[in-house]
User: Fold this.
Amino acid sequence: MERKVLITTPYRAEGERYEYWGSNIDRFASYKYEKKNANGLRFLKKNIPQIDILEFPTWKEYERVLKEKDYDVVGFSFFTYEWPRTKLMVKKAEDMGVPEIWAGFYGALTPGIDDFFDRKFVGYSEKRLAQEFDDVKIDRVKHPMIVDYIGTVGGIRGFPLGVVFTSRGCAVGCDFCQTPKFCSKPYKIPLSSIEKVLKKYKEAFINEIVILDENFGQFKKHTEKVISLFEKYDMNWYPMTRVDILDKNLEEWYERGFSGTLIGVESLKQDSLDNVGKDIEVAQTLNLLERLYEKNAFVIAYYILGFEEDTVKSMKESIKKLSQHEIDFIQLTVLTPFPKTPLWREIEEEYGIIANDWSKWDTKHLVWNHPNVDPDEMREVLEWGFKNAYSPLKFLKSPVKYYNRHKYKWNHFRTQTKMLKDIIISNSDIETDVKDVT
Assistant:
């Protein structure tokens, strides 16, 4: 008899929602959405239907499911900063007599947690987990439907996004990134799986695709075939990729449906980039941002505060400089030496770690002994940055860019019709092919 297995994320507080602005500063106009998709869990459920999953349950939902199902195994998929909540859930499962506890996702790399778990799964684990079930064999990883939404004021959803992964892992070893330890060898998601999920998105009238690879474009031939699929299904797409890859391919990709990107700018200081193994020229990044603006591309830029050379003054000057570019979202983060990374070892040896509360390892807190900035000053810079990186008009510019980008591809009437349909579709129930146990 096969064991009953539940895989869950950390719990969320009652009514807790992820809100882009509110997670950093208070603003009236907001981009917000309900954080319901645990991408890794959805892949597990799609490929191993026998397991149950819980995506961001409330504590009451978690307790209820444990009582009703009598699981043999409960596994936890979490980030390092989520360990305090996960630890409470582990204790609850043990108190309710669950015989075996597992850990997975990036949180499994957290030091000092081994005694809490019977097994740890590091890396994408569909095939390893399938070995627990006699009748499950995975030749090709299946891609689940994962639907996200861009929201507007009042929580009304703007348009739906179909999430796609075309590869996993990254061959470029930036010192601050855990991915090389989590997924040591990059690999491709099968084209047949990608095409099947694109068909499902098309049937649900979803034409905007966000690609959440760690590094879209790292497999050139595979990327070319994926883009051909986007063209086949008339999709607009937004990849997470590197500056150098996008800079090289922007013109061609733009003519083939590219509509925006998620890129790591990281720093406007060349020394800082060089010191963490980010082999990108600042001038190349700034030039690319200008080119993206000219093409009405939607841009999310990730920027890191608190490199060794940074001071309060220099960080504010860099934020001012970056905010002069037409970036839709600047996700400001604090340099964090995550476990198992080269940066962890370097900072621990040279400066020392000052935070023993893992909940602060969320890239919003300074957790190490910075030579020029203390934790309170860093928090002030972070809040100042979010308040000054966005003008009131920036909130209105993104829809205009979206409209102009689609008008270039189509015409006024079709673009207006599409935007209206998107709002209607987003605010209706979209059936996906994977559901959690709640």
